[in-house]
Design brief:
The complex is a heterodimer. By secondary structure, chain A is of the alpha+beta class. Chain A is 50% helix and 15% strand. The two termini of chain A are 31 Å apart. By secondary structure, chain B is mainly α.
Chain lengths: 102, 180
């Protein structure tokens, strides 16, 4: 979810905007602490890269840290998508997914 | 004013100053609409999350350091008692109470952990601080000579834990400053 949010936000992905994107599209609030540790893990794995922007007054003079999905992050996303679709195959008839009852 | 140095200091305990600055900036930005209580609760929760994240990366090493820290604390306490006992013979008697010895031992242990292991030492100090609470309670709430009957035992307990963490944090900060 974090990787997808960063992809959607493109050049403007930083802590606050990522949390807002997840809240808007997934309908759930992510705690800042959980997000920053997730971002650290993704960066350690090489799935995202980060750069520091300019400091702004509304942030108490602190700079934003912008995140970007790397090539290996994109590959990981594609693998996850493929696994998800593979797992969904054969479940079309389940009522829970909107299909006719078995 | 949300961007206090206290929140920055707390965040830098378990992450780099650059990352702590951006996290503090994010929290400050959101706190403009959410308020001061939200800001401080998130600073504390984020600090806790960063500690858990760091601890889980090398739990065995940190637990090993915690044990070493505990042994150091005991050793420091024994050394301080020895100094107190020997000092009259050296012509400069030092009079430390049992509680002062424990407090000094806590501070010195924190300093040693933070100085020798600037990153993991801080994680270990937190584990040691929590682990020391039951051990210190046993000593403090025991009968004399260390237990006493005063009402300040809980305050002493908090002070010992605070000194341990403070020693570690100050050493870590100093090492980080020297490193550039």
């Amino acid at each position: 979810m974090v990787l997808l949010s960063i992809l959607r936000l493109d050049e403007t992905a930083y802590g606050v905007s990522i949390r807002a994107e997840i809240a808007e599209h997934a309908g759930r609030s992510v705690a800042p602490g959980a997000l920053y540790t997730a971002l650290d893990r993704l960066e350690d794995k090489g799935f995202v890269t980060s750069r520091v922007g300019d400091p702004t007054p509304e942030r108490g003079g602190r700079a934003k840290r912008y995140y970007k999905v790397s090539a290996s992050g994109l590959s990981a996303l594609k693998r996850a998508q493929s696994a998800y679709q593979s797992l969904l195959k054969g479940l079309e008839r389940l009522e829970i997914l909107g299909g006719p009852n078995v | 004013m949300f961007s206090s140095s206290v929140s920055f200091t707390l965040l830098t305990l378990f992450t780099s100053p650059e990352r702590a600055a951006s996290i503090q900036g994010d929290l400050t930005e959101e706190a403009r609409t959410r308020g001061r209580i939200w800001f401080w609760s998130q600073v504390i929760r984020t600090t806790g999350a960063l500690w858990r994240h760091g601890f889980m990366q090398s739990p065995l090493a940190i637990l090993g350091l915690t044990l070493s820290g505990g042994a150091t604390w005991v050793l420091m306490t024994v050394l301080l008692v020895a100094v107190e006992l020997v000092s009259p013979y050296l012509g400069a008697p030092i009079n430390l109470s049992g509680r002062s010895v424990l407090l000094l031992g806590a501070l010195l242990t924190g300093i040693i952990l933070g100085r020798a292991f600037p990153v993991r030492g801080m994680y270990a100090s937190v584990v040691l601080a929590f682990a020391s609470i039951p051990a210190l309670s046993l000593i403090l709430f025991a009968p004399q000579p260390y237990g006493g009957t005063g009402d300040l035992r809980l305050l002493f307990l908090a002070l010992a834990v605070a000194l341990l963490l403070m020693g570690s944090a100050l050493s870590r900060r100093r090492v980080a400053r020297k490193a550039g």
